[in-house]
Amino acid sequence: MSAVRSGAATGVPRLTIIVAPSDPLELVGDLAALGPTGAVGFQVRAKEATTAELLALTTAVLAATRGAGAPVLVNDRLDVALAAGADGVHLGADDLPVARARAIADRAAPPGFLVGATCRDRDAVVAARAAGADYAGFGPVAVTTSKPGLPDPLGVDAVGRAAGVLPLVAIGGIGPDLARGAVAAGAHGVAVIGSVWRQPDPLDAAEALLGAV
Fold it and tell me: Which residues contact 186 (CB under 8 A, 6 or more apart)?
């Protein structure tokens, strides 16, 4: 097992925008350029895509964001993240174990490759840190329709109880007000889908979220 991570937030963006194949990819470059370098990042998520389709989507997002220095992670698939030259992977409970992913990444990826873990309470965050995770995706904080089958919302108080172990990226029903509250409770940043892509002006929406964190 790799060494326990320090929990530093280096490389973890304040605002992570989750990207699916149906999203308007022509906006990705402009979104990446919002705020200071690295403040906005992207997580490529396409659970129904083939490996080739996911690789192509990741490559397209990387091409659109490299000039702005925005981190790009891949949801679930360490193999695709490594093949595309992405900046990290985000893993759920049913994916490759964090410790195994960390060991592979430490051998195969450049320094700074991020491994994130989905967590729902402080104990899970502690376990993710011990396994080598760099950050915890924490949620759902509020009600969301972006992903089916999620547990009941955890609330902002749960963010506060889990904070201080790893950088927490709050997710689930996050708008500007909730983003502000999550960061005040101890989150490092937030991850969003509908709060950007389902808004009349995704750039304005992302800018408001970035201002909140």
Answer: 159, 160, 162, 163, 164, 168
**Domain 15-212, architecture per CATH:** Alpha-Beta Barrel (3.20)
Cα dihedral sign for 62, 13, 115, 160?
Answer: negative
Q: What is the pLDDT of residues 138-174, one digit of tens each?
A: 999 987 766 666 678 899 999 999 999 999 999 999 9
Tens-digit pLDDT profile for residues 60-105: 999 999 999 999 999 999 999 999 999 999 999 999 999 999 999 9
Q: Average pLDDT of 2-24?
A: 74
Report the alpha-carbon distance of residue 134 to residue 196 in Å, rounded. Answer: 25
CB 65 within 8 A of CB 40: no
C-alpha separations of 63 from 28, 42, 72, 198 in Å: 10, 12, 10, 23
26 contacts 152 by C-beta, under 8 angstroms: no
pTM, full prediction: 0.92
Q: Within 10 Å of residue 191's Cβ, how many Cβ atoms?
A: 25
Q: What is the pLDDT of residue 175?
A: 95
Tell me the β-bridge partners of 117.
91, 136
Q: How far apart are CA 11 and CA 41, in angstroms?
A: 9
Mapped onto helix, strand or coil, the DSSP state of residue 40 is: strand
The Cβ of residue 124 has, within 10 Å, a number of other Cβ atoms equal to: 18
Domain spans, the chain: 15-212
- Neighbour count for residue 23 (Cβ, 10 Å): 18
